[in-house]
């Protein structure tokens, strides 16, 4: 038995769906046993049928074999009700809302069944669903968006305030809904690279890797270790680049302009290095099913190492400047705090969770061959505030740079392979779930094939989906003026949520 | 204080002195179509293209649809398609975004005299993302960083539509954003222009055919400038705008 893989495959007739009530009960049981809910979704089956799927990560204690992912399936009919998990396990709240919106199943007892993204018949009816309202003296509401002041994706934020204090923030998304999941079924499975890279375009590499891994597993193809290592380098470069974008925003939002200018140009250095390898500053076209289109030749390896050496020196310097400034500390410390308990109960993932002391990183819990050979140090902070998320971004950049260097300098193994292993037909009647730890957290993609091997369902889940509620919680009891730094410190995806 | 000076010294001078001379190493930019003959009945490039940007007889690539992924390059058995690092891909006419062997380069952008007079020294832009994946948004943001620094040409991104002369549109225009986009446009004072940034904004490209897209806005207000790419290189944007407004480098 090797290390736990980040891809799980199951023949759909081996995971027989149970009745909806039994499925919900089994999900509750898994959650009670301490398993972590990775995703929960449904798909239509015929006109009225609905097939539900929940995927859990088993806890460390039960780590016996490669299958740390636990898949539970249920079957019901449109309009059927089941006992909502959310009341006991708030981590399920977003998934159940999405399930209800996409399939019409009714999670009875869900406290807030609001559409996640106003898709299908609900498009352009975004004002139909009532917002929360707060009444009383000195109470007022402030609505912001969908269009915001800076160059940023759209979303609506409604603050319910008592005087200066925010009681609650209601986040309404859906403006970015492009119908991605439907489009993914309209083209041949092997030709989805570009579209997948545009689902959340700042996480192109994480998405492309998850898609490639799923397709390769479904086609029974194993790519060479050298290609895996190149993919790993690509993903960490993306993490560094996007954490730098986050740091630029955080510095700019508190008018720490020298930080903003410096992180901005450091990001340019990283994404230009990505471009010299694969032609795109965002890594578009780098990864494709069957391997990588661009290997790391000795020349490019040297180029990356030189770039990173200069980068490390400069970022250390500006991090020290920023962390040492009293004005920066006083602006970030104690602002936008999410407690560890709240992060855990809400099922927050990725950096947002780790900044609140939840040590969970799928590169460590589902390492596969790559991260078993080259382990990642999973970092966390405990204070859960904007300061923690700022510091963790800096520390994760350092760790990614260390990891990339380790891989690039490893004496064994070629990295120059730029050819693709041809993929044959996909396994029929198979469900494949792949997970990749992008810069925000785990990107989950679940592909199911039909009897003829064509794609029957393609479920996409961005780490932002569960994390947006964390932002709402972070802003409570802060002021509206704290919102920009809270928002930037989470740095979540709008289109990743809206699909 | 000393730390700040040290960071400033390391920062050095980062701006690109003349964007018209800049040539980004490794960028997969304007496609080049070679002279070799296509194999009989071959349509491998068309099949490989995820956005239906390629047409045959003769082979031509519509940069308004192309996402510059490069998937066509290895697919072509006659090795007719390759990519150079040219960023000059902006155009003022949607129908003139196509390159072929006989027309390898786009027409140079002519200075628009009326726009030059009005906005040549100050152009304020309001960005609206209507389904953009954050790729174009990050590159539009990069326009104002210390490398590209469009502020030196009097070009700025502003917060309020009331202050804006131009709308920078990114994304394929989702139905859920159609109304907000229109409201923003209506809030901008005349005279005003639209700059369509990225393959999604120009043609809908990878999202074309989705029932969640409503592109009627562009039917009513045709862009003055098209900036291709996925996402476009900031230099494609900078050069397009400098040329359109006749701004010296």
Descriptive overview:
The complex is a heterodimer of chains A (499) and B (249). Chain A has 499 residues and is an alpha+beta fold. Chain A folds into two domains: 11-114, no CATH class; 204-463, Cytochrome-c3 Hydrogenase, chain B. Chain A has helices at 20-32, 93-103, 180-183, 193-197, 204-219, 225-253, 257-278, 298-324, 326-332, 340-346, 350-354, 362-365, 368-373, 386-409, 464-475, 483-490, 494-498, and strands at residues 7-11, 18-19, 36-45, 49-57, 69-77, 81-83, 106-108, 139-144, 156-162, 165-172, 287-288, 291-292, 430-437, 442-449, 455-461. A four-stranded antiparallel sheet of chain A has the order 1-13-14-15, with helices on one face. A four-stranded mixed sheet of chain A has the order 2-5-4-3. In chain A, strand 6, helix 2 and strand 7 (106-108) form a beta-alpha-beta unit. In chain A, helix 6 (225-253) packs antiparallel against helix 14 (386-409), helix 6 (225-253) packs antiparallel against helix 16 and helix 15 (464-475) runs antiparallel to helix 16 (483-490). Chain A starts with 6 loop residues before the first strand and ends with a helix. With 249 residues, chain B is of the alpha/beta class. Chain B has a domain at 113-245: Rossmann fold. In chain B, 27% of the residues lie in helices and 15% in strands. Chain B has helices at 2-11, 44-48, 72-75, 113-119, 135-142, 175-186, 199-203, 216-220, 234-245; strands spanning 31-33, 54-55, 60-62, 81-83, 98-100, 123-129, 155-157, 166-170, 193-197, 225-227. In chain B, the strands form three sheets. Chain B has a five-stranded parallel sheet with strand order 7-6-8-9-10, with helices on both faces. The mean pLDDT of chain B is 94. The chains are: A alpha+beta (499), B alpha/beta (249). The interface between A and B is large, with 69 and 67 residues.
